[in-house]
Amino acid sequence: MFTSAKRSYQKELLDSSDIPFRDIMHNMQELEFINRYLGGHAITIDGVNKLISEYDVREPIKIVELGCGGGDNLNAIQKWACKRNIPVLLTGIDINQECIQYASSKPENANIQFIHSDYRQVHFQAKHDILFSSLFCHHFDDIELVDMLKYMQLNSSFGFFINDLHRHPIAYYLIKWLTQLFSSSYLVKNDAPLSVSRGFTRKDWTYLFKKAEISTYASEWKWAFRWLITVHTYGIG
């Protein structure tokens, strides 16, 4: 029985090291569809827009995604920026080498840089303007998340944002029902509802940011059962 009282720390199948890549690729393709049609990409673009709206952008905005998977979020940003004549330099980091190879092989990602690495091992010579993660934070425990928040603050000059899941019974049973009916990926069918149980409540974010010693941030609830967390870091450090 699902309960939203506490986060689950049960590992998702996708976090295993022995999943065949054809199954991971199928999973990424379905997640890209979900992101497009349930508003995930729109939330990511909203995060970028909130962090650049205060600035007169003349130089290319350097944006880095932690846990980029197949690069669909970065591609959505690229399309949005191109339509608005906003110059961007986009970078994706992922620990899974096959994900990076897949993302790099897509023609629409030709102008995006991809790095195969644990993000914690990537040390930039200078801060990037914006760091973000989408459906990445829920893969980590609280201690790892606090370290991630500190990393994102340290390495962003404009700020950072997080697009992740709201742990809620409606979200859990809705995605469980939808994926059982429409998904053909065993990874999606297993991991989608589990991801919700590993997601966050507003109280969780309050706790995590307090532990990270970040006092100023904004949290917004977004459809469909997502959080958009934004932090402005301009003038810090």
Write the layout of secondary structure elements.
Layout: H1 21-37, H2 40-52, E1 61-66, H3 72-83, E2 88-94, H4 97-105, E3 113-116, E4 128-134, H5 142-154, E5 156-165, H6 169-182, H7 186-197, H8 202-211, E6 218-222, E7 226-232
Parallel strand pairs: 1-2, 1-4, 2-3, 4-5
Antiparallel strand pairs: 5-7, 6-7
Can you characterise this structure?
It is a single chain. The protein is built from eight helices and seven strands; from the N terminus they run ααβαβαββαβαααββ. The protein has 237 residues and is α/β, with parallel strands linked by helices. It has a domain at 40-166 and 201-232: Rossmann fold. The protein has a seven-stranded mixed beta sheet. Keywords: Methyltransferase, Transferase. This is Methyltransferase domain-containing protein.
